[in-house]
Amino acid sequence: MRPISIEMVAFGPYAERTFVDFRGLEKGLFLITGDTGTGKTMIFDAMSFALYGDTSGDRRDSDSLRSDLTDEKPYVDLTFEHKGRRYRIKRTPRYSRVTRTGSETPVSPTVELYEDGDLVCSKPKDATRMVSETIGMTLDQWRQISMLAQGEFVKLLDTD
Questions:
Q1: How many of the other CB atoms lie within 10 Å of CB of 132?
Q2: Coil, strand, or helix at residue 132?
Q3: What does the pLDDT read at residue 34?
Q4: How far apart (Å, rounded) are the C-alpha atoms in residues 1 and 135?
Q5: What pTM value is reported for the model?
Q6: Are 28 and 2 in contact (CB under 8 A)?
Q7: Alpha-carbon distance 158 to 110, whole Å?
Q8: What stretch of H or E contains 18?
Q9: Exposed site from 76, 84, 123, 141, fewest CB < 10 Å?
Q10: What is the pLDDT of residues 75-116, one digit of tens each?
Q11: How many CB atoms lie within 10 A of CB 8?
């Protein structure tokens, strides 16, 4: 699986549309670096959420992904390639929105999974299953190999 791009809106610290283009990373291994609190881990959380509907680690709950800094509808839109095919998956997390009367109403998570431009799934659990089958790994496996979060190096050393 090779990420092409990811777009985040109202997602974690990314209140505004944020677009990350991975196409220039030819070698497949890259480092995301920056000051503490600048949203580095959230990029991996966004990738994990797009693929599996959950975050990249145990520190953040997928129901708390909507940015508190905006009223925009939150979503993550990930495009990736795998075995010569191009996939695009767009997910919105569960969140609450304010109605005209000022009360809050819950909004259910949504997903759209495309393969080579064709919509193949729009049910969250089915999309997660299809992604797992397509790229050949579960969320737990993805978490183990996609990133090494700060403070989690000991887990790598202690793993079977």
A1: 16
A2: helix
A3: 79
A4: 6
A5: 0.84
A6: yes
A7: 36
A8: strand 18-21
A9: 84
A10: 999 999 999 999 999 999 988 888 889 898 888 999 999 999
A11: 29
